[in-house]
Design goal:
alpha+beta; about 25% strand; elongated; single chain; 2 domains; PH-domain like; about 40% helix; YcxB family protein; about 170 residues
Length: about 170
């Protein structure tokens, strides 16, 4: 489906944007499976400490890594936000373009295009759209979209029979 619509906007990758992205696109996992790496590291460290003659530094290092890993699971959102804010893309400007080709995000560090054919589903969230595509999942905040752009996205996917969300 070709359409002459073109929408472009810029936004800043700041803490509020990252926080919204996490809140709307990540389902936290606090199951025992999520802690498996932490448990494995701690048990390896304890095993090295108790049953071998290896230097205790290495054993305690593994135990410490297990604790840090457990904390990263317990505090997933702050951990993820801290990593994003320490990345080189933090506080940079991103240009979002929606046109007949697809959805393009371009910054100093990234130039990514999600073609309409690669998109499997678009799910509305409380504050934006979750785009599920061949490469994974991407979140687009409603703060960045006009009503026309949102409608265009849904029209592109409805025309291809790919959008499962017809109630909004």
């Amino acid at each position: 489906m070709t359409d002459s619509f073109a929408y472009s906007t810029t936004f800043k990758l700041d803490k509020s944007h990252f926080s919204e992205c996490y809140q709307e696109s990540v389902v936290p996992d606090y199951s025992l499976r999520a802690y498996s790496k932490a448990i494995f590291l701690a048990l390896m460290g304890l095993g090295l400490s108790l049953f071998t003659e290896i230097d205790q530094y290495a054993a305690w290092f593994l135990i410490g890594l297990g604790v840090v890993e457990a904390l990263s699971v317990k505090y997933q959102k702050p951990w993820w936000l801290a990593r994003q804010m320490l990345s080189r893309s933090a506080n940079s400007q991103v240009t979002l373009t929606i046109d007949g080709q697809g959805i393009r995000s371009k910054s100093v560090y990234v130039d990514a295009l999600i073609s309409w054919g690669d998109i499997n589903q678009v799910s509305p969230t409380g504050q934006g759209l979750l785009v599920i595509h061949k490469g994974g999942r991407s979140y687009i905040s409603s703060r960045c979209l006009s009503e026309e752009a949102t409608g265009f996205i849904h029209r592109q996917l409805d025309g291809a029979g790919q959008n499962d969300d017809t109630d909004q």
